[in-house]
């Protein structure tokens, strides 16, 4: 392992972290996109804030700044197909990523997956640029919880459904 150059070792190291798959949604109508992230975590409880990291080349990045809010849908065990669409598998882009799922709104108008394990309706508090990515800090305006949803994780290069 010590002989592996850093550019190859780092992605291999990251594969050993388990991440919860979360869909971030931004924009409205034809002007909407979204992506799946595993970089989403809690930042603080008082005030309620979260953060995730987004590639500045992603179609969602400009929408976050322009619309000023986003939806956070923590995926449930059965949501692998939703995750694949929002990861852009098969070349699915923009509004087409929202197909074959039901969406609701809460306070800000951001779209939230109706049967997510939990949803956070967020305002963009800050976007901090770091090289290829931005750290997006979200101020949570509303929370919805679903009981017995399980979770969709990503670990070692594969989606893993965790039953409730
Ligand atoms: C499991 C998984 C986790 C991901 N996590 C992130 C992430 O934290 N941040 C990010 O910018 N992209 C992440 N991606 C990649 C984006 O989902 C993907 O590049 C994006 O959907 C492409 O959108 P675009 O077509 O708008 O560029 C992840 C992909 C997968 C499969």
Structural account:
It is a single chain. 14% of the residues lie in helices and 46% in strands. The strands form 3 sheets. The protein has a 7-stranded antiparallel sheet, sandwiched between helices. The N and C termini lie far apart (36 Å). It has helices at residues 6-14, 61-67, 80-86; strands at 19-20, 22-28, 31-37, 41-45, 48-55, 69-74, 103-104, 112-113, 118-130, 133-145, 151-155, 158-162. It is built from 3 helices and 12 strands. The longest helix is centred in the N-terminal third of the chain and has 9 residues, at 6-14. The radius of gyration is 16 Å and the shape is globular. Strand 9 (118-130) and strand 10 form a beta hairpin. It has a single domain (21-154), classed as Pnp Oxidase, Chain A. It is mainly β. The structure holds flavin mononucleotide. Flavin mononucleotide binds next to strand 3 and strand 5.
Q: Short summary of the structure?
A:
The protein contains 3 helices and 12 strands, in the order H-E-E-E-E-E-H-E-H-E-E-E-E-E-E. It has 164 residues and is mainly beta.
Short key terms for the protein model shown above:
single chain; 164 residues; mainly beta; Pnp Oxidase, Chain A; 7-stranded antiparallel beta sheet; 3-stranded antiparallel beta sheet; 3 helices; 14% helix; 46% strand; globular; binds flavin mononucleotide
